[in-house]
Design a protein that fits this description.
Elements lengths: L4 H22 L8 H15 L3 E6 L1 H12 L4 E7 L8 H25 L10 H14 L2 E2 L1 H6 L5 E2 L1 H11 L6 H12 L17 H12 L7 H12 L10 H8 L16 E2 L4 E8 L5 H10 E2 L2 E8 L9 H12 L8 E2 L2
Parallel strand pairs: 1-2, 2-6, 5-7, 6-8, 8-9
Antiparallel strand pairs: 3-4
């Protein structure tokens, strides 16, 4: 996260070099990483195999799924979309939603870590520990000795990195115990579990997702002053500070991307005869619930199933929501509109 104008300009230069390297390594196929091009590839596979598609997409995969429905509405048996992304939103809307929900889910995590007996921080003042770790990392990046040994992550963790990586941890309830352990370790001077993962191979999913985003999303103006004001807007939403969101990252990394935007945001209006089930957690730190409400209006005839809980995606939790998703995929059983599950 650039903290000064010099940092910002250096980041732009670094990502410009990274983009050029990506184009040189990948070749012309880099120009076809947008969602529409990818969806057309899926249709080519469907034509070769025959029959209709039963599609299940999560997170970005929801955009993939409803884009397919826009282009090929008559070739679908069932469309299941979990943790919605609304591609009509601006990047600022994305950032604001993520920052707002990050704060809510982080509070839920802090409560859980303090009160749940399975937490490494059970019975302790976890909000105080969280603030102590941030204060320590603000003065000096906390060493990450485990990362030095493996080379898989950064050798230390600055305060903004810790906030950003905590935001990644809270996306899944399964990683909450690891996050609690990471805070406990960091308080003792070991930030290994909270350090930033490094790309250690030519094939890295982070760069793949970046290549898609740089062709799918219109960016805000690219001045340092605009960047600062956007971060101020996000900080105003959270008493715990904010990390570097995906949209914040795109606004820098895509600024000088060597391939132009070809699939920018646009109003979404879809009509298909196949059943469509959308699933969304009420407190999703990566894609806010209003995206799901908006998409229910954009895909006529769709049904939104709500999970009253935290986390990005619901199927892996294996609760009532997951069972309903199985019933939909196998038997085309659609829950009643307005259904809410607690698991």
């Amino acid at each position: 996260m650039p903290l000064t104008q010099d940092d910002y300009e250096n980041s732009l230069d670094a990502f410009e070099k990274s983009g050029k390297s990506c184009l040189e390594s990948t070749g012309e196929s880099l120009r076809y990483m947008d969602t529409i091009s990818a969806v057309k590839d899926v249709e080519a596979v469907r034509q070769a195999l025959g029959g209709d598609i039963t599609f299940w997409g999560g997170s970005y995969g929801t955009q993939y799924g409803y884009t397919y429905a826009q282009l090929f509405p008559n070739n679908i048996r069932a469309l299941l979309l979990d943790a919605m992304v609304d591609h009509s939103y601006s990047t600022l809307q994305l950032e604001v939603g993520i920052a707002r929900n990050d704060a809510l889910v982080l509070q839920h995590f802090l409560d859980w870590a303090q009160k749940n007996s399975t937490s490494p921080l059970f019975g302790k003042d976890v909000p105080k520990i969280y603030n102590q770790v941030r204060e320590k990392a603000t003065k000096k990046a906390i060493l990450a000795p485990g990362c030095v040994q493996t080379g898989a992550c950064a050798p230390d963790a600055a305060e903004w990195e810790i906030r950003t990586n905590i935001g990644n941890y809270v996306k899944s309830l399964r990683t909450w115990p690891s996050l609690a352990q990471g805070l406990a370790d960091a308080q003792e001077g070991n930030a290994t579990l909270l350090a930033t993962e490094l790309a250690t191979a030519k094939s890295y999913i982070g760069m793949s997702l970046l290549a898609i985003a740089c062709q799918d999303w219109i960016l805000p103006q690219g001045t340092w002053e605009v960047q600062q004001n956007r971060l101020h807007a996000l900080e105003a939403l959270s008493p715990y500070g904010i990390g570097f969101t995906s949209a914040s990252f795109w606004s820098i990394a895509c600024r000088r991307w060597p391939v132009p935007i070809v699939n920018p945001q646009a109003p979404i209006n879809i009509t298909i005869s196949a059943p469509v089930l959308m699933v969304h957690a009420m407190w999703d730190p990566a894609s806010n619930y209003d995206m799901a409400v908006s998409m229910e209006q954009s895909i006529r005839g769709s049904v939104l199933l709500t999970r009253r809980g935290d986390g990005h995606g619901s199927y892996s939790l294996k609760g009532n929501t997951s069972a309903a998703m199985d019933s939909f995929l196998i038997d085309l059983k659609v829950p009643d509109p307005g259904t809410v599950y607690d698991s």
